[in-house]
Automatic annotation (TrEMBL):
The lineage of its organism: Bacteria, Bacillati, Actinomycetota, Actinomycetes, Micrococcales. The keyword Hydrolase applies. This is Alpha/beta fold hydrolase. GO terms for molecular function: epoxide hydrolase activity. Residues 4-107 form the Epoxide hydrolase N-terminal domain. Keywords: Aromatic hydrocarbons catabolism, Hydrolase. Belongs to the peptidase S33 family. The active site is at residues 176, 308, 357. Transmembrane segments: none annotated. It comes from Agromyces seonyuensis. It comes from the Bacteria.
């Protein structure tokens, strides 16, 4: 497999092109001032103003380039990511798998902390060699070289990357789509996976992948039904991309404002507390850095097509495996534990009253602490 060091160096011409496209935006009618129909026009204009005038891409680029990066090619598919080694040679390798609509930039603020066993906000004795790739079609793991990038194929590619980096045994963290990748690695790599820690938030109990709920009380069933009804309003993005990804891909590939508002809506819906993209713990410039990498990588259509492949795959989520598994739950929703670990079958359970779908950006100290605690508790064979 071809694997080489990588450094971000977006050409000035691409940065000028982005600014020109933003300045020529043709805005839709400003009909409502809330988020019921998607990102409101006023919110979109404020974000675009920041992207044009207050956001310094070169400063963000330098920040990201302070972290070692790689570019691999698996079956001809580019896979970009971060690789930060701990100063301790005996550190446990950890693969971080992001979800939709993110990319590896989501983890950029916690990588150095995870790799340094005595540094950062949490300290402690658990050292980790950290690998954070973007899923094919996301971030700079672009362009997609073909169809068929479902969860098993992504997991196989990430396994190849870990082996190429010298890690034949490793731990895995996953959220959203990344949680499916983590589960698949347990099935495919078996004992080479030390264990997996998944992140969840209240929205996760209202999807088609929710485990059986026969054990809930009547009141809990009513609460669960209400959560599913509320989540149904949020599934437009998924219905479109898992059925007709090209219908949205042209806009995502051609319009930076569509890429921005498409992602900003998910940050509004899925962060805690629900609010503006700069809601608690999510800095606007960090959001814009993540969106910028998606824009420069041309990732909008890739992510849409990857979701389509996942939805049309024969592989199902929620299959049994024998690897140690834990969950870190963010958000004040008792049903998460009742549904996901009602019988206490998990090796580890961690919960935090605040936080949401993007814990590395919302609650980084808590996530780092849980990763260290869970994988530190596992003794590699």
């Amino acid at each position: 497999m071809d694997l080489e060091p990588y450094e971000l160096a977006i050409p000035d011409a691409e940065i000028r092109d982005l600014a020109e496209r933003l300045s020529r935006t043709r805005w839709p009618a400003d009909l409502v001032d809330d988020w019921s129909r998607g990102t409101p026009v006023a919110e979109a204009k404020a974000l675009v103003d920041r992207w044009l005038d207050g956001f310094d891409w070169r400063a963000q680029e330098a920040r990201l380039n302070a972290l070692p990066q790689f570019l691999a090619h698996v079956d001809g598919q580019p896979i970009h990511g971060f690789h930060v080694r701990s100063p301790r040679d005996d550190a446990t390798p950890l693969l971080l798998c992001h979800g939709y609509p993110s990319n590896c930039v989501e983890f950029s603020r916690i990588l150095a902390d995870l790799a340094d066993p005595m540094g950062g906000a949490t300290g402690g004795a658990t050292a980790l060699h950290v690998v954070a790739p973007s899923i094919p079609g996301y971030g700079l793991s672009t362009p997609l070289v073909g169809t068929g990038w479902d969860i098993p194929r992504v997991a196989h590619a990430f396994d190849d990357v870990m082996l190429a980096l010298g890690y034949d045994r490793f731990a895995v963290f996953g959220e959203d789509v990344g949680a499916g990748v983590a589960e698949q690695l347990c099935l495919d790599a078996g004992e080479r996976v030390v264990g997996i820690l998944g992140a969840t938030d209240p929205g996760a109990i209202a999807t088609e992948y929710t485990p059986p709920t026969d054990h809930l009380t009547d009141e809990e069933h009513r609460r669960h039904d209400a959560a599913k009804a509320a989540r149904a309003e949020d599934f437009g993005y998924l219905a479109l991309q898992t059925t007709r990804p090209l219908s949205v891909a042209f806009g995502l590939a051609d319009s930076p404002v569509m890429q921005l508002t498409w992602m900003a809506e998910k940050f509004h819906e899925w962060t805690d507390p629900v609010g503006a993209p700069s809601a608690e713990g999510v800095d606007v410039d960090d959001l814009l850095a993540l969106v910028s990498v998606s824009w420069f990588g041309g990732a909008g259509d890739g992510a849409a097509n990857q979701l389509y492949d996942t939805a049309h795959s024969a592989a199902a989520w929620g299959r049994h495996h024998d690897r140690p598994q834990g969950i870190t739950a963010f958000g004040d929703e008792p049903l998460m534990r009742r549904i996901l670990n009602g019988d206490d079958h998990l090796t580890g359970w961690y919960e935090h009253p605040k936080g949401g779908h993007f814990p590395a950006m919302e609650r980084p100290a808590e996530l780092v602490g849980d990763l260290r605690a869970f994988f530190g508790s596992l003794q590699p064979a």
